[in-house]
Amino acid sequence: MDHGTNHAARLEAANHALGNSINHGHLSGAEIMEALDAWQHTSSGGLNTNVENLRSQLQNGDKLAAAHTLQQLGEEASHSALNLHDGFGDQLRHLGQLLVTAAGNLKMS
User: Fold this and answer.
1) What's the superkingdom here (predicted)?
2) What tens digit of pLDDT does each residue of 38-62 get?
3) Of 11, 13, 36, 76, which one has the fewest beta carbons inside 10 Å?
């Protein structure tokens, strides 16, 4: 299943940017949404509802609710990647790990 090299590169760049924000301790709602927007049209419809919930939670400054939603999204991404054994699956797995990490960081901030 080829999702196109440009597409894969964009997803990898989105993951990389999100990972850098997490690693340098300046994770913001805008950076989380930027990464998720890059992924949005590649994922199952289920992600979209949570992404919209997350957007409003971040805009309202509701960090605990946003952390909970990020955790769900991370688990969903990891679960969706289980049967994908290509570059796309690798990026999706990486996104899942990043989102769970971001959820933990939000809870502590």
Assistant:
1) Bacteria
2) 887 665 555 667 888 999 999 999 9
3) 13
DSSP letters along 40-85, please?
HTTS-HHHHHHHHHHHHHHHTT-HHHHHHHHHHHHHHHHHHHTT--
- One-letter amino acid for residue 107 of the chain: K
Q: Which band of pLDDT confidence, cut at 50, 70 and 90, is reported for residue 34? A: confident
CA distance 64 to 61: 9
Residue 109's Cβ-count burial label (10 Å; 0-12, 13-18, 19+) is exposed
Rounded (10°) angle between helices 63-81 and 87-108: 160
Q: What percent of the chain has pLDDT over 90?
A: 39
Looking up tokens 């769900």 gives 72
Continuous segment of H or E residues that includes residue 31: helix 29-40
CA distance 21 to 42: 22
